[in-house]
Each structure stands twice: as C-alpha cells, then as structure tokens.
Design brief:
Distance between the termini: 47 Å
Largest sheet: 7 strands, mixed
Radius of gyration: 23 Å
Strand order of the largest sheet: 9-8-18-19-20-17-21
Strand content: 15-25%
Helix content: 25-40%
C-alpha cells in the first residue's frame, strides 16, 4: 500500500522500525522486517517509489523506458531471487550484430569484447586488464581497507595508474571510457582501490560492461521500477513526499522529523546515498568518522538520453546498437528497444566530464548534441526521432547523481569501517553499502537484506540497548 504524505493506514499503529528511502534497499529491508512480524513505516522524500529506478511511459509512442537503472545479470543472485519471488519476468538485452567504437578519430565495427585495434594495442590492453584483475582478486569484498597494500592502492587515482602503466593512447582511451561507463566519473576522481573493489564485485574488468552471462544481460519486463512498485504494494505503510529533516535517537528509540510531523520507533534504517545525509542534523551527532565519510562520497554525474524511432533502423545495417566513443557528449550507447523490437530505442549516456560539461545547458541543447552524437555513430536517420527523453540525475535533489557514490583517494582506508557500522539504533542500507555488486540493483537488495538481519539481531540481543552508548564518541574512551 503506497500512501501520499497525508495518507494513513488503518489504525495508524506505531511502528517498530522506520525505514528512510523507498528505493530497492529500503523496500527490501521493510519487506524482510514485515515478514519477520515487525511493524514498519517507510518514509520517502520523492513523490514516487523506486529511488534510482524510474520507468516512464512516453506520450507520443506510448513506449515505456527506464530513466534510471535497467539491467540485471544472471550472476547477481539477490535481484534474480527477488524477481522470482515477485513473479516478474526479464528479457535479454539486444546485442546481435556489430558494435561500434569511435577512438582517436576513427570508427570501427567489431564483435566481441574490444575493437579491432593494432596488435600492440591489444597486447597492451590485455596486459593491463590482467594486471588489474590480479590486483582485484586480493581485495576482500566486504572490507577493501584490509587488502594487502591497501593504503598504497588507495593513495593513487585510477588515472595515475593508467598514465603510469598504459603504453598506448588507445589503451588509455579505452580505460578512461571504462571509468565513465562503470562509475559515471573520470578516472582521476577514483581511488585505485575503489576500482579494484568494483572489479572484484563484477568478477573481472568486463563483468560490468558485457551482456550475455554478465551484468547487462537482461532487462525487467514492465521496467525496472516495477520491482520497487511490487515491493511497495505489499507493504502496509509507505509515505511519499516525506523527506527526513532531522534524526534524533536516545537509549529507547529513534525520532525522525519530516515536514508532516515526527515519527518514532525503536530502530531506523537509513537507505539513502550517504552524501544526502551530510546535510541532515543528527542528535546526538554522528561519530566523527561516519560524519566525515558522508562528506567524502559525492555522486557520479550522468545524463541518460533515449531517442525513440519508428523501428530500430541500425539493426538493418547489421549493428547491435552498442557503441563507445571518445568524442562525446554521448560516450556509450545501447539498443534499449522493447522486447518486440518496435519502436526502436537508442540509449546514450553522457558521463563524467561530458555530463558536467552539459549539465548547465538547456535540455534542448543537450538533445541536439546527443542526437548529433548518435548520428555520427549510426547515420543521419538518428537525427529524426519520434520523441526523446532524458534522465538528468545530477539535477535530482533526492539522488544528487548516479550511478552511485565515488570513493576518492584515502576514503576506503580512512573511513571504510564506518560505511555499514550501525550508530546506536540507526542502521545503514543502500547500494553504496552493498557487500557485493555495489551501486547495482542487486547490491541495493543485498544491503536491505543485510540491514534487516542486522536489526533483527539487535532487537533480540541486549546489544540493541547498549549500542547507542558504545557508539558515542564521548563515552568510548571512558
């Protein structure tokens, strides 16, 4: 049952747990707690559920498109299991045909993993990919800060590592495109340890960018937001347009302040990006390491652009719709057509520096530039869509960007231990806190299940009453 800001369920019983955020993490946590017999209230700042999944039906063609997250993979067990539980179906991402790569002024067709570059470039890229994966295998997924040589790895940026080790301009271009496609960021914004952590989550450098057997294999029939909506519909108390303005806790519970009033429960789960919490007052204040962590996790920058055509004309030319380009502003594209193949939908991403360069321009200017990019790759037919739509995630006040938080140098080793550690009766969830598939739908679901299990364990233990005192910086040394 999804309620607006003024709605109330029958009886309006006081909750045992408050969950902040009606994305996949918060809704999963609420579902598991409800199944365990707890009364749960979900507070969501937006006027919809779904968080960074957002499916919209376009007015001209009537096609539904995902403005946020849209892919799931067979190696992502949590989202796969939840889809099965809820009876939702998936269909494969279209990838038949040749891919395109525009690198250093030349466009090439290719199949497989990487473009048909000169042999010395392929050998250089293979050498660096193998080296990155060897380093990644040494990183513990749940605690990257404990990896061998973690401080040295966390003290350098991914860009520093690329510049130091790549021997060809093409290799550097490919790895910088990889950073944009996977992190919606530039490699200079990312610690090497964070890139290795992500590589470990995906099972290798290509695990985040491939379709069959990997993270981009499938899409959800009806759109990715239908997963969140199905979860919300089964919950008794979900309140929209209810941003949390203040968090208070004491030895017996947590009070959350919203524009509509106060909400009180024994525990709370905050399932929102850490950066959004940096402006929320906590009483008592958060431990310094947790507060500092929230200041160090900016969101990635990405604008998702979709153009709808009468048919997927690129398929007629033997193209898959997948492309990479170092020219911009669109740097990565996919065929995002519905399962029946009509109408045709091309999806383009403006990521990292390109997103920042265009985020202050008007939607009309971005549209013209994005269509020009598509036309350079797929021909003049791309200039005449039936309609277009964009997901401008840096402009979303309750997201602050996408795909997720960026860990710069020193963040994992200096603050990583505070990422999931409860503070008194406040627990943390969200895709950024995932132990596997961080910043993916699978990771968001895993984080919600972890936070729910953690809270249930705290309720059944005397530690639930002691945790506030033990987390207080004033008493820690006493």
């Amino acid at each position: 049952m999804t309620l607006d800001a003024e709605g109330r369920p029958g009886g309006d019983a006081a909750p045992d747990v408050l969950v902040v955020g009606a994305g996949l993490a918060g809704l999963t946590a609420a579902r598991r707690l409800t199944q365990a017999g707890r009364r749960v209230r979900v507070l969501e700042a937006r006027d919809r559920v779904g968080g960074r999944t957002h499916t919209v039906r376009l007015p001209v063609t009537g096609v539904s498109v995902d403005l946020g997250g849209q892919w799931v993979g067979p190696n992502q067990p949590h989202v796969t299991a939840l889809l099965r539980e809820l009876g939702l179906e998936t269909y494969p991402t279209h990838d038949a045909g040749h891919n395109l790569a525009h690198l250093l002024g030349r466009t090439r067709r290719y199949r497989g993993l990487i473009p048909p570059l000169p042999l010395w470039v392929l050998l250089d890229y293979a050498r660096l990919s193998s080296r990155l994966e060897r380093l990644a295998r040494r990183v513990p997924l749940e605690a990257p800060w404990t990896a061998p040589d973690a401080e040295r790895l966390d003290a350098q940026t991914f860009d520093t590592w690329i510049t130091r080790h790549a021997r060809t301009p093409q290799t550097r271009a490919l790895l910088r495109l990889y950073a944009g496609a996977v992190f919606s960021a530039d490699p200079a914004e990312l610690s090497l340890l964070h890139v290795l952590t992500y590589t470990a989550h995906g099972g290798g450098i290509h695990g985040h960018t491939l379709t069959r057997g990997h993270a981009l294999q499938d899409r959800i029939l009806g759109g990715a937001q239908s997963l969140a909506q199905r979860l919300a519909d089964a919950l008794p108390d979900v309140r929209l347009s209810s941003p949390v303005l203040r968090v208070e806790q004491d030895a017996s519970g947590v009070t959350l302040h919203t524009p509509q009033g106060q909400h009180r429960a024994a525990h709370a789960i905050l399932a929102v990006p850490p950066a959004l919490l940096s402006g929320v007052p906590f009483d008592p204040p958060l431990p310094p390491r947790r507060a500092q962590l929230q200041q160090r996790l900016p969101m990635g920058a990405v604008v998702k652009f979709l153009a709808v055509y009468e048919r997927p004309f690129w398929r007629e030319a033997g193209l898959s719709g997948m492309a990479i380009s170092d020219r911009g502003p669109v740097t990565v594209t996919f065929d995002s057509s519905p399962p029946q193949g009509q109408p045709g939908v091309l999806l383009g991403f403006l990521e990292g520096a390109e997103a920042r360069a265009w985020m202050n321009r008007s939607p009309e200017e971005r549209r013209a530039a994005a269509l020009h990019s598509l036309a350079e790759l797929f021909g003049p037919q791309a200039l005449a869509p039936l309609e277009t739509v964009e997901g401008d995630w840096p402009a979303q006040p309750h997201s602050g960007g996408c795909y997720g938080a960026l860990f710069g140098t020193g963040t994992w080793t200096g603050y990583g231990e505070a990422l999931r550690a409860p503070v008194g009766r406040v627990h943390w969830a969200g895709a950024e806190t995932a132990r596997v598939w961080m910043n993916y739908m699978d990771g968001a679901i895993e984080s919600g299940e972890r936070a729910a299990a953690e809270l249930l364990s705290a309720r059944s233990s005397p530690l639930g009453r002691q945790s506030l005192r033990s987390s207080s910086p004033k008493r820690a040394g006493g």
